[in-house]
Amino acid sequence: MSKKKKRTILVVDDSIPACIYIKRLLQKNGYQVLTSHDGVQGAKTALEELPDLILLDKEMPKMNGFQVARTLRAHKDTKGIPILMFSSENDTQQRIRGL
Q1: What is the CATH code of the structural domain delimited by 8-98?
Q2: Which of 31, 36, 55, 80 could form an SS bridge with 26, CB 3.0 to 4.6 Å?
Q3: 39-49 and 65-74 are packed helices; what angle lies between their axes, rounded to 10 degrees?
Q4: Whose CA is closest to 54, among 74, 83, 79?
């Protein structure tokens, strides 16, 4: 019987405490978790590791979440990876933009 492959989730957030919390929570539920603390590194990690899901903060230094998402959607290897973007903002226009 083959061993079931763990699903990999990439968490991209400039808040290190948030990354630690989310990583621990997901690992407790059986996921392999990668983290990046800025958009540039997050895009690079996604292109190298091809995770099953990306949890992406909207506001980050160097490259924001929208820029990361556009970069990944433009690349053939990452265009199909689901991205869940999150933000502490409560702006409806920004939510629509994220979709």
Answers
A1: 3.40.50.2300
A2: 31
A3: 30
A4: 83
CA distance 75 to 73: 6
CA R_g for the chain: 14
Q: Say which amino acid occupies 56.
A: L
Residue in the structure block whose two tokens are 């990668």: 34
pTM reported for the whole predicted model? 0.85
Domain limits, the chain: 8-98
Q: For every one of its 99 residues, what pLDDT tens digit does the chain have, with 9 covering 90 and above?
A: 456 678 999 999 999 999 999 999 999 999 999 999 999 999 999 999 999 999 999 988 889 999 999 999 999 999 999 999 987 655 555 555 544
